[in-house]
Specification:
single chain; Thrombin, subunit H; seven-stranded antiparallel sheet; six-stranded antiparallel beta barrel
């Protein structure tokens, strides 16, 4: 086993890779992952251009090269000069409870913070910006000040495990795992989204859907209620309407948001997929053709 690093060693080795998001951003931090590219949280951004504070306080103008809307992360492009890129952790295995970690940040460019802690639980799950369940989040005890979102979480050898994202009670923090992002940085920067199936609907949670149906005298039924349909989406082309209750897709019962995402992920692309809906009291089936997006 490799020896664990100290705070002083981490500050010296990984600290220069940490950046602060200044003018043009909502604050926050980021980390250089490749020459000319910084990884951060999409929620830190205001527009397509911002000022980034590199190690030593040097300010550079960055552009938002791309985002992963499901995970809520973004790739910035800028002249990082001789700034070193962080070292990625090997593999996608989740760190064990008690494993030492280091949290780093440069909140809004106000100076480097480096703290130590430990993994506090088994991998956690959290619903992402678009409703998908994000799994494998790392809950840890390394404290950070406000404005640190997007800064890196490192393992005991100073390798990138995740981006600090959510502040919990009692000083705990959740970090988005970056193992799955490593191979996608270039695609995100190029604006290429992950190949994921989308219906193009906004939905209402099942418990609210049941209450709404009951309020207008319709029988209760498990499913997800369509609140809106995006124009020119697969759902719109299939004839799905606002107020429809999706009860099954591709032979899978749909009784929750996660069940809908599971059915979408298992469905074939560019082929008719049966979608069973309830419109009022009438159940009908339509065929939807999904594309990657």
């Amino acid at each position: 086993m490799a020896p664990q690093s100290t705070l002083q060693q981490i500050a010296a080795s990984a600290g220069p890779s940490v950046v602060g998001l200044a003018e043009g951003a909502r604050g926050g931090s980021g980390v250089v992952v490749e020459p000319g590219r910084v990884l951060t949280l999409a929620r830190n951004l205001r527009g397509g251009q911002l000022s980034v504070a590199l190690s030593g306080g040097r300010l550079k103008t960055a552009t938002v090269a791309g985002t992963d809307a499901d995970r809520g992360i973004a790739v910035l492009e800028l002249d990082t000069g001789e700034t070193p890129a962080v070292t990625w952790a090997d593999g996608a295995e989740a760190p064990a409870i008690g494993a030492p970690v280091f949290a780093l940040a440069d909140p809004a460019g106000r100076g480097l913070r480096v703290t130590a802690g430990a993994v506090a639980s088994a991998p956690q799950a959290l619903r992402g910006p678009r409703g998908r369940l994000l799994e494998g989040l790392i809950e840890h005890t390394a404290p950070l000040p406000r404005g640190s979102g997007g800064g890196p979480l490192l393992d005991g050898q100073g390798r990138l495990l995740g981006l600090n994202a959510v502040r919990l009670a009692h000083g705990l923090i959740l970090a988005l795992p970056t193992a799955e992002v490593r191979e996608r940085v270039a695609d995100i920067a190029a604006g290429k989204p992950a190949t994921q199936r989308r219906l193009g609907v906004a939905i209402v949670a099942p418990r609210i859907a049941r209450r709404l149906r009951g309020a207008v005298g319709l029988p209760e039924r498990e499913g997800v209620l369509v609140r809106a349909v995006q124009q020119q989406s697969p759902a719109a082309r299939a004839g799905v309407e606002r107020g429809d209750l999706i009860v099954a897709m591709a032979g899978r019962e749909v009784d929750s948001l996660d069940a809908l995402f599971a059915a979408l992920d298992a469905a074939p692309l560019e082929q008719p997929v049966p979608l069973r809906i309830l419109r009022g009291e009438q159940e009908r089936q339509v065929d939807v053709v999904l594309g990657g997006s």
